[in-house]
Design a protein that fits this description.
By secondary structure, the protein is of the alpha/beta class. It has a domain of 162 residues: Oxidized Rhodanese, domain 1, CATH 3.40.250. Helices cover 27% and strands 14% of the residues. The chain is built from 7 helices and 9 strands; from the N terminus they run H-E-E-E-H-E-H-E-H-E-H-E-E-H-E-H. The strands form 3 sheets. A 5-stranded parallel sheet has the order 3-9-8-4-5, with helices on both faces. It has a two-stranded antiparallel ribbon with strand order 1-2. A two-stranded antiparallel sheet has the order 6-7. Helix 3 links the parallel strand 4 and strand 5. Helix 1 crosses helix 2. The protein starts with a helix and ends in a 19-residue tail after the last helix.
Length: 242
């Protein structure tokens, strides 16, 4: 089924929608854009139509001090799937729109507010490092379909992954039997924010076959001319009158 869905995207099938208008810069030869719904909003992913367009600013940089900004491997954790742009588009159309998946921008809010991949939500990587009983972590995991309680699924797979990461086997305080597929990204192959979030999820016991890592991140996304979505600014907090 996955192969069929990806082939549909590659061939430009709109999966039931009307054909998109012709563009000078398509995503693939027969795919000009991808439109989908997530969080009650309509999103369109397309590429910049100016063939002379170039990156400027921070994402045009080629080198950053390492450490901490070191290049990450293709496989960030055992069992976790690394994906590229077309697989992300398939995820958006097949998972986000149907409510079976969550696209997570794992960067800090200041980065997220500057522009993100359409359809994503912001869950900073620091949230996944909180104590297992922390209310903010519990609420975040609930958003991903995870509940409190002993998990009855995926235990063997997760224990093997934990062992490979050097962690001891243990019982997890969460039930992952209804966990959603989650695709995480950050600033690029040199960014440690989504890798840290992924490792923290694995440590918590999240099913590795439900975790996806977009290694390219915002830098590669923008380098390929894909559009960014600028979220609505959060409300400004004012000091209470005394």
């Amino acid at each position: 089924m996955k192969k069929i869905l990806l082939t549909s995207l590659l061939l430009g099938s709109s999966l039931g929608a009307a054909p998109a208008p012709a563009k000078d810069v398509n995503i693939t030869e027969y795919l000009p854009e991808v439109t989908f719904f997530a969080q009650g909003k309509k999103y369109t992913i397309e590429r910049v139509q100016d063939p002379e367009h170039e990156l400027s600013g921070g994402f045009a940089k080629t080198s950053r001090k390492c450490p901490p900004f070191c290049v990450h491997p293709m496989q960030i954790a055992p069992g976790v799937n690394t994906v590229a742009e077309l697989e992300l588009l398939e995820f958006a159309k097949n998972k986000l729109e149907k409510g079976n998946g969550v696209l997570v921008d794992a960067r800090t809010p200041s980065w997220y507010q500057k522009g993100t991949i359409p359809g994503s939500i912001n869950i900073p990587f620091t949230v996944f490092d909180l104590r297992e009983t922390d209310p903010e972590l519990v609420k975040t995991l609930e958003l991903l379909g995870v509940r409190k309680g002993q998990s009855v699924n995926y235990a063997d797979m997760e224990h093997r992954a934990m062992d490979e990461l050097g962690e001891a086997k243990r019982a997890f305080p969460y039930d992952f039997s209804r966990a959603k597929d989650v695709l995480l990204f950050c600033n690029g192959p040199w960014c440690d924010q989504s890798p840290r979030a992924i490792r923290a999820l694995v440590k918590l016991g999240y099913p590795t076959n439900k975790i996806y890592y977009y290694r390219g991140g915002m830098q590669v996304w923008l380098l390929l001319g894909f559009n960014a979505y600028v979220p609505d600014a959060p409300p400004v907090k004012t000091a209470e009158k005394r």
